[in-house]
Amino acid sequence: MNRPRTLYDKIWDAHAVAEDDGETLLYIDLHLLHEVTSPQAFAGLAAAGRAVRRPERALALSDHNVPTAGQAAGPGGVADAEARAQLEALVSNTRDFGIENFPMGDPRGGIVHVVGPEQGRSQPGMTIVCGDSHTSTHGAFGALAFGIGTSEVEHVLATQTIRQRRSRNMRVTVDGVLAPHVHAKDLALHLLGVIGVDGAGGHVVEYAGEAVRALSMEARMTLCNLSIEMGARAGLVAPDATTFAYLAGRPAAPTGKAWDAARARWAALASDDAALFDREMRVDARDVRPMVSWGTNPSQVAPIDGRVPDPAALTNAEARGAATRALAYMDLTPGVPIAGLRLDRVFIGSCTNSRIEDLRIVAEVVRGRRVAPHVRAMVVPGSGLVKRQAEEEGIDRVLRDAGFDWREPGCSMCVGMNADRLQPGERCAATSNRNFENRQGRGGRTHLMSPALAAASAIAGCIAAPEVPR
User: Fold this and answer.
1) In this structure, what DSSP letter does residue 230 have?
2) For residue 316, how many other CB atoms are within 10 A of its CB?
3) Contact 155, 262 (CB under 8 A)
4) Cβ contacts of residue 9 below 8 Å, gap of 6+?
5) What is the mean pLDDT of residues 185-203?
6) Residues 267 and 38: beta-carbon distance below 8 Å
7) pLDDT category, 310, cuts 50, 70, 90?
8) Among 189, 206, 267, 268, fewest CB within 10 Å belongs to which?
């Protein structure tokens, strides 16, 4: 009799090609590429005279280095020489090796972790890799998705496989229903606050429970996106009717009889009832509140109505030291309320929160209102198709009327590898995934939060919660 298996075990076992010295050679179904981590990999292939093993299993996007204005000019219009060289290299490498590429200006282009799902390339049961840590996003579809290094990018290009050690299983069950105006970003930041940035180290996390099943696909992507910030190798949500409805009709999704067969396979992708997890964690959805980061890693968070913590109150010496350093960098005083911290910038975008659902939430919060005069606020759609849909729905007009800068798709200020950067000392409300020192610009201070909180904060000019109708 077969042993009960988790969803992770099932995907792993289905893709195992060989075992050797504690490592498994895994077959890779989808390889996503971008301009920053791929040039060296392609150079290695060329030097060795190797071809790409399965070019049809790859998709390339320009996202990290692209400017969020003037993309019609293509890579040649990028001012920074290094960024321009990486963008041009992706164009030539994908042409030479026969890989599909959505270049700058292509309406299908944008952030790799937005475009893959949007195109229907990310599907249940797949193994998905990319030279980017937030590949965990695609686990929302019940796919095993994880980031890899540049040498591994070359290995996957050459062999369509990768060597990996099996992770342990962890299940996070969220019981009950999230309160109104509490979003997936709040849930993810709450979990980070509970378990820390390495709390899920060595594990693949499966998210389960009533609150997770109630999330939309876009919200599930936000949750899985932040799995890597918990130290997890990947995050997973078992596919269900919500997954199938999202994928139906997407460009790369199966059709006709192939769709019926795929849906039947996908429906079987769930952890067995008797499957054992190495770690179990339960969360009551009623305990999750709108969250804001105060420090320099995503686990240093507090509820919107909380206060900046006092490091002296922490009993763990390492945590106390980290909090002290974080407060110095963020220029914050213990005991000060989180709400009311004055802002200079607001950034709404990134692979965490730049999909159409996120932009609809922002538009609802700011409709008929104005960004505070001292705040520069920008919204960066996750893809050209998200931008187009937002414009068809009139969302861009709502945002422009409110005083937001409406940009073209890309990673933008999330990573600070392009022209969108904070200046030293600027304080920013951001919907991105990392608040590390200098992440959004040297000396910039980042507060992570949901799109709803970021939108309300732009209007208030300080960290603030949306006005909730009574």
Assistant:
1) G
2) 9
3) no
4) 169, 275
5) 97
6) no
7) very high
8) 268
What Rg value do the Cα atoms of the chain yield, rounded?
A: 22
Which letter does DSSP use for residue 37 in this model? T
Q: At 460, list the tokens.
A: 């208030």
Give the strands of the sheet with 203-208, arranged side by side: 234-237, 203-208, 168-175, 279-284
Report the alpha-carbon distance of residue 146 to residue 19 in Å, rounded.
20
Q: How far apart are CA 329 and CA 332, in angstroms?
A: 8
pTM, entire model: 0.97
Separation between Cα atoms, residue 86 and residue 60, nearest integer Å = 13
**Number of alpha helices (DSSP H) and beta strands (DSSP E) in the chain:** 15, 19
Q: At what angle do helices 384-392 and 356-366 cross, to 10 degrees?
A: 40
Give the pLDDT confidence of 134-192 residue by residue, as tens digits: 999 999 999 999 999 999 999 999 999 999 999 999 999 999 999 999 999 999 999 99
Whose tokens are 């909380």? That residue is 306
d(CA 16, CA 28): 10
Distance CA 454, CA 460 (A): 10
Question: pLDDT (tens digit, 9 = 90+) per residue, 267-288?
Answer: 999 999 999 999 999 999 999 9
Is there a contact between 122 and 128 (Cβ–Cβ < 8 Å)? yes
353 closest CA partner among 381, 331, 377: 381
The answer for 416, left when phi > 0, alpha when psi is -120 to 50, beta otherwise, is left
Q: Is residue 384 a contact partner of residue 109, using CB atoms and an 8 Å limit?
A: yes
Strand partners, 60: 33, 101
3-state secondary structure (DSSP) of residue 460: helix
Q: At what angle do helices 451-460 and 356-366 cross, to 10 degrees?
A: 30
Name the helix (H) or strand (E) containing 375: none
Q: Coil, strand or helix: which one is 465? A: coil
- Single out the residue of 135, 123, 137 nearest to residue 239, CA to CA: 123
pLDDT in tens, 210-220: 999 999 999 99
- Amino acid present at 195: I
Strand ranges (E), 132-195:
144-147, 161-164, 168-175
The CA distance from 462 to 460, in Å, is: 5
**Cα 197 from Cα 133, distance rounded (Å):** 14
β-pair type (291-293, 301-303): antiparallel
DSSP 282-336: EEEGGG---EEE-SSSTT-EEETT-B---GGG---HHHHHHHHHHHHHHT--TT-
Question: Strands of 16-20's sheet, edge to edge?
Answer: 16-20, 23-27, 161-164
Sign of torsion, CA 56 133 203 291?
Answer: negative
> Is the Cα torsion angle 384, 386, 391, 395 positive or negative in sign?
negative
